[in-house]
Amino acid sequence: MQDRFSFFPATADRLADIEAVFDDCADGRNCRCAYWYRPNADYKAGWGEGNRNWFRSLVAEPRPPGILGYHDNQPAGWCGVAPRVVFDRLRRSKPFAPVDDRPVWSINCFIVCKPFRRRGLSRLLLKHAVEFARANGAECLEAYPVDQAARASNGAELYPGTLSMFLDAGFVEVARRLSARPVVRLECR
């Protein structure tokens, strides 16, 4: 089954496929990862079409903002990965404040289209996001997953990924300022 998946940087020539993945997700359709990039007021004001237009300009920039997964040439999933410094929310966040002064990259969002859920695609997206970050010079990767064991409810807000998925991929917990949201890291060199 895994051999039917392929992965590519999220470049402008793949915009229609990226939008198909976001449009398959209720929140993704309106957020477009703007939550991480834009100041909160702009993110909320742009909910829907404003964030969609903003994201189109982001994808047109030279550095792809993530990885796109396909299953038999059908868009199936998304993983946002970029240098931490580009994410406005991370610059202002106390729970996800920098652990140190290293120039890390951040993985912050996974979206898997409904037909491909529970098939290991998030783990494959993570693997390829790590490869993408390494190929683009990342020395260290960081993420802010959900620790389902520490979470009070079993809500569906797993966009940042699960702690177990990251630990299985070799990430280690380096900080925990919220009970269910650790900061995890992976050395890339």
TrEMBL record:
InterPro entries: Acyl_CoA_acyltransferase, GNAT_dom
One Pfam family this sequence matches: Acetyltransf_1
Residue stretches making up the N-acetyltransferase domain: 16-189
Protein name, per record: GNAT family N-acetyltransferase
Organism for this UniProt entry: Rhizobium ruizarguesonis
Source species taxonomy: Bacteria, Pseudomonadati, Pseudomonadota, Alphaproteobacteria, Hyphomicrobiales
